[in-house]
Amino acid sequence: MSVVKKYSSITNRSLQNVLAYRTSYVITFLSNFVNLLAIYFLWQGIFNGRASVGGYTWDQMRTYLLITFLANSVLSWYSETAISGKILDGSVAADLLKPIDFQSARFAETLGTSLLEGGMSTVLIGIFILFTSGVNFPHSPLVYVLFALSLLGAMLVKFGVVYLAALLCFWSTGSMGIVWARIAVTNLLSGALVPLAFFPDWLERVALLLPFQSIIHTPTVIFLEQATAWESLSLIGVQCFWGIALWIAGKCMWNWAVRQVTIHGG
Amino acid sequence: MRIIEARQLTKSFRQAVKEPGLKGAAKHLFAPRYIEKIAVQPLDLTVEAGETVAYLGPNGAGKSTTIKMLTGILTPSSGTISVNGINPYKKRMENAAQIGAVFGQRTQLWWDIPILESFSLLKDIYQIPEAVYKTNMNQFIELLGMSEFIHLSARKLSLGQRMRADLAASLLHNPPILYLDEPTIGLDVSVKQKIREFIKKINQEQQTTVMLTTHDLGDIEDLCKRLIIIDHGAIIYDGSLKDVKSNFARERVVFFQVASPLPALLNQLAQAPDIKLDIQGELEFSLSFDRFEYTASEIVGRVMKHGEVVDFRMEDANIEQVIKTVYDGNLDLKHSRPQEGA
């Protein structure tokens, strides 16, 4: 399949590209680790002396934190700024001169960096678990399969959100505002900040109707075995739905943007 | 065969009008005002397959806008374009597969991986057959002298090396059409030469149609038989380089070196309105004149009548001066054009 080859080659080069930044890679690695520690101890403080908070025991909570960390890192900072950067500095023009679909190419690129960042996070979590105890591991292998699927789904949905946000840069001249706003909304409504179960009832219901919950909520629910196998499958189905819907929305927005807006920077 | 055809092509942009000062900025925030800026006026353009065309104009004349519309990355406000039978902005991907493009200031190479990797990625993107890729790669590496830097990442290349690599990248898939936007900007003489020779060779061997914008008139003299000049979004000249030279390079300069000073002659010449005298030394001076008014022998004859000429040499106005006069608005190629074939 030569069409697949087009995009898999992009993924390959993108992976090479990230590997070229060895120093920045190590620094990102360390700062992620510090972040994880900070959040971990924050929650440990909150749980101090309590059996459970909002229905979560401390053991469940720390598992939740590790899964959140993993799910969040499969598609992180790099891809966020890479797409909007392309639009802002005008190098999107170079992509338009190629017989490739912009959205698929960006997805392929993101996949390349995600493989690396996901791998890195897994290692990090592995190290972390070695020094802690009480993390809840599911026993059924089926859960791991479903969990892996849900991580893929989460990535697809997150890409959709990031891509749409990046396209907004066609209309603005800076990306930072958009990126920060997107991160704030995503973190809150996906359950990355606190589990959705901690929300007031109405907000929890709203959050469950939005695509963001697919990014963090779904993988954590599956890993913590708070859903049965069938429920998990239907959650993954919801992820697929959002992934496809956002993909189509991205496509429409791209077509609209390309027609309406000249390319920045001459 | 007409490979590029544009009819009544226009493009206008919306520009924000902001009044000065904080008040103006605040006003713009709530009630933005815009004006339409016309970048390209209704423009007709035809390029035959295998031609090399120079597309010139001062900064902001609408050159890049036209090229962007032809490559499909900018949608025209009105008019039609057909590039090798394809409408570039409606079928961007199909069009992209049949063109190569180098935009001088931008690179299409990946910044942090060896450029060889960028090339092999292009092989997959354009679905270039292995044999074609190998042949082209070997030829390009040799012609452009790329072997010493092909393993480096684009970040580490000098401007000249990067430009050569970019040029190679744009031609790997043997596109029938090549757009070059200022391909030699900022390069040293020897790299310029290499690039021009390369483009010439590709044009001759593959019959690649080349359309090039440049401010470097050496590019034009070396590469292009046809010249299109655009200003304020409209084509003001379209014809051969030779015609421009013979019709518009009117000024001719003769440099004289004489045996003894000739004050009488110089006085006389200083009064002649259409001959310009420029004194370089006691025994050296030059006369510039319109070669449609005087012949060179007339001028030389006149000087020789007054005294002994030791040496003289003649200089034609070069294309650079013609273009400069056009840009300055002192020469209207369309209207002051002498009768055809004059």
TrEMBL record, chain A:
Would you indicate the residue range of the signal peptide?
none
The portions of this protein that span the membrane are 20-43, 63-79, 111-131, 143-173, 179-199, 230-249
Entries under InterPro entries matching the protein: ABC-2_transporter-like (IPR010390)
Q: Which UniProt keywords apply?
A: Membrane, Transmembrane, Transmembrane helix
Coiled-coil portions = none
PANTHER family assigned:
SLR1174 PROTEIN, SLR1174 PROTEIN-RELATED
Q: What is this protein called?
A: Antibiotic transporter permease
UniProtKB/TrEMBL annotation, chain B:
Q: Where is the ABC transporter domain?
A: 4-257
Q: Which InterPro entries does the record match to this protein? A: AAA+_ATPase (IPR003593), ABC_transporter-like_ATP-bd (IPR003439), ABC_transporter-like_CS (IPR017871), ABC_transporter_ATP-binding (IPR050763), P-loop_NTPase (IPR027417)
Task: Supply the alphabetized keyword list.
Answer: ATP-binding, Nucleotide-binding, Transport
Q: Which PANTHER family does the entry mention?
A: ABC TRANSPORTER ATP-BINDING PROTEIN, ABC-TRANSPORT PROTEIN, ATP-BINDING COMPONENT
One molecular function GO term is: ATP binding
**Which parts of the chain span the membrane according to its record?**
none
From the UniProt record, list the coiled-coil ranges.
none
Q: Which Pfam families match?
A: ABC_tran
Q: What is this protein called?
A: ATP-binding cassette domain-containing protein
Keyword Nucleotide-binding among record annotations: yes
